[in-house]
Design brief:
Chain A: Pfam families: ThiS (PF02597). Chain A: InterPro entries: Beta-grasp_dom_sf (IPR012675), Mopterin_synth/thiamin_S_b (IPR016155), Thi_S (IPR010035), ThiS/MoaD-like (IPR003749). The complex is a heterodimer of chains A (67) and B (268). Chain A is mainly beta. Chain A has one helix at residues 19-26; strands at residues 3-6, 9-12, 34-37, 40-42, 57-65. Chain A has a 5-stranded mixed sheet with strand order 2-1-5-3-4, with no helix packed on it. The longest helix of chain A has 8 residues, at 19-26. By secondary structure, chain B is of the alpha/beta class. Chain B has a single domain, classed as Aldolase class I (TIM Barrel, Alpha-Beta Barrel). Chain B is globular and about 85 Å long. Classes of the chains: A mainly beta (67), B alpha/beta (268).
Chain lengths: 67, 268
């Protein structure tokens, strides 16, 4: 089973899973997060066609309170 | 006659708006959204401050969190200004802001590259390097920097939309440490000068405005006041008072006293 690293934590993923699939699985609203895969931003329009590969490093971020 | 003069005090310079990167703003107070007890307190403080621009930070999603800031903040009322807090290199800051842009926010960004965890003072070299790349990528860059006129001049030359020199270290509440440097920066700048960080109370905000700053950005001074909502209101008023005093033009400082009552006609 392919494994990705999501926000620093290893996570098993299924074959052919896209970024959009992953966000759905995590219960996240795609409009409220930004995704980076192997240090490159994945534009929202490409979430559906971006298929995760074994060893991918993903950062899923959002806005929080800050100065 | 006196009525005419009173009526004019508000209007001598027309409505006192200012321009930031093509936006026309009425409030000169920009506030952070960090360090509040909860969402309700954040909302109440933002409202009391009258701010039109509020800063936010970018972090990994918390899958256990119930609320997302983007879920509750009124984006018609507040322009979000993403920051790069916690970034120690130009690369980290650029990476952060590219992600922030993907969140559908306008191109307005607060660039801060920190040089040291104890003082949180800016790394000007990294800030300049990041500013150049971000301006080239089409971001509207508001850089946090030291109160150094040379650094501010270079940031302006790179095409930043404003410069944001500190009053004192972030979260220190020490107030305006070097008013002379700020005055030099204001004198030379053709872009807005926004004092960012170090303000502790309303009089500090007023001093910044009296110097001629375009605005003040703060977070801790409101969030860590005993009564944050009251302090947000006090800051709003302090900014207005300082701005009006700046426009009014203060009297010259004198070495010795100068009587306010007539010195002739005293009874003998």
């Amino acid at each position: 089973m392919p494994t990705i690293v999501l926000n620093g934590e290893p996570r098993p993923t299924s074959e052919g899973q896209s970024v959009a699939d992953l966000l759905r699985e995590l219960g996240l609203d795609a409009r409220q997060v930004a995704v980076e895969r192997n240090r490159d931003v994945v534009p929202r329009a490409e979430h559906g066609q971006t298929v995760l590969a074994d060893g991918d490093q993903l950062e899923v971020v959002t806005f929080v309170g800050g100065g | 006659m006196s009525n005419t003069i009173e009526a004019k005090t508000h209007d001598d310079h027309g409505e006192d708006t200012w321009e930031l990167a093509g936006r026309t703003l009425r409030s000169r107070l920009i506030v952070g959204t960090g360090k509040y007890a909860d969402e309700a307190e954040t909302r109440a403080c933002l409202a009391a401050s009258g701010a039109e621009i509020v800063t936010v930070a970018l972090r990994r999603v918390d899958l256990k969190a119930k609320d997302n800031l983007l879920g509750w903040i009124d984006r018609d009322r507040y322009t979000l200004l993403p920051n790069t807090a916690g970034c120690y290199t130009a690369d980290d800051a650029i990476r952060t802001l590219r992600l922030a842009r993907e969140l559908g926010i306008a191109d307005l960004v607060k660039l801060e590259v920190i040089g040291d965890p104890k003082t949180l003072l800016p790394d000007n070299e990294q800030t300049l390097a990041a500013a150049k790349i971000l301006v080239d990528e089409g971001f509207t860059v508001l850089p946090y920097c030291t109160d150094d006129p040379i650094v501010c001049r270079k940031l302006q030359e790179l095409g930043c939309a404003a410069v944001m020199p500190l009053a004192a270290p972030i979260g220190s509440g020490l107030g305006i440490r070097n008013p002379h440097n700020l005055a030099l920066i204001i004198e030379q700048s053709t872009i807005p000068v926004i004092v960012d960080a170090g303000v502790g109370t309303a009089s500090d905000a007023a001093v910044a405005m009296e110097l001629g700053c375009a605005g003040v950005l703060m977070n801790t001074a409101i969030a860590q006041a005993t009564r944050p909502v009251q302090m947000a209101d006090a800051m709003r008023l302090g900014i207005i008072a300082g701005r009006k005093a700046f426009l009014a033009g203060r009297m010259p400082r004198r070495m010795h006293a100068h009587a306010s009552s007539p010195t002739i006609g005293l009874i003998e």
